[in-house]
Amino acid sequence: MTEELKEQSIKEFPDFNFAEGELLLINKPYKWTSFDVVSKIRNSLKPLKLKVGHAGTLDPLATGLLIVCTGKLTKQIDSFQAEEKEYTGTMVLGATTPSYDMETEPDQHFDLEGLSHEAIHHATSAFMGDIQQYPPAHSAIKVNGERLYLKARRGEETELRLRNVSISLFEITSIRLPEVDFRVICSKGTYIRSLVADFGKKLNNGAYLSRLTRTRSGNFLLENAFEVSDLVTHLRSKKV
Questions:
Q1: Model confidence over 75-130: pLDDT tens digits?
Q2: 111 is catalytic
Q3: Which structural domain, as residue segments, surrounds residue 23?
Q4: Can you list the positions of beta strands (E) in 71-127?
Q5: Active-site option among 59, 130, 181, 230
Q6: What is the pLDDT of residues 121-166, one digit of tens each?
Q7: Do residue 148 and residue 199 come from a single domain?
Q8: What's 61's domain CATH number?
Q9: Residue 117 and residue 155 in one domain
Q10: How many domains does the chain have?
Q11: Of 105, 136, 151, 194, whose CB has the highest number of CB atoms within 10 Å?
């Protein structure tokens, strides 16, 4: 796939060659897992027997750009996954949840009185550059062959390891307390949920993620992504 094709809009369906390899930009729907998207596309390609995989997992409650590769292009998934990511989102200050997002109910509440807009903007500076963060206990990371979120749902505690990540941009775009909108540009492996939770602690308060959208991965943009339903309808009509 040429650099020119990467940059141009692919809203109109091209002539796909899935066996040779296709890179599909998908707008992952809310509450779908990344695997749900892959499975839907793979089933739409039957009776072709092709490898289909994704580069960079999105949480079920997140939306936005998911890169899906087919055929021979699946060999390049690691390189696509390593690219810089960009997100927009909303956090809720004044409370925390065990999952760091809206998957679980708030377990702690904090007073927002006296928390200034200036302090909120200033706190982002502590997370710029190379930082370390713990992944959420409710995450898809495997420990001893089992996903962390399965252990967390059973109430089991697991010792989490710090991860090195890099944040090149963390800006506050709007404040409507208790909600705060933000934009982040970061390295692969960054957990925005953890960033939000740590941000709340930096303010001597609490915070959890209420909305997240991946808008960019490397040079690929969400605005050029297919809706899953549109792509599946097209593939089935072509009987590829």
A1: 999 999 999 999 999 999 999 999 999 999 999 999 999 999 999 999 999 999 99
A2: no
A3: 3-82+219-238
A4: 85-93, 95-96, 108-109
A5: 59
A6: 999 999 999 999 988 866 655 555 554 555 445 555 555 678 999 9
A7: yes
A8: 3.30.70
A9: yes
A10: 2
A11: 136
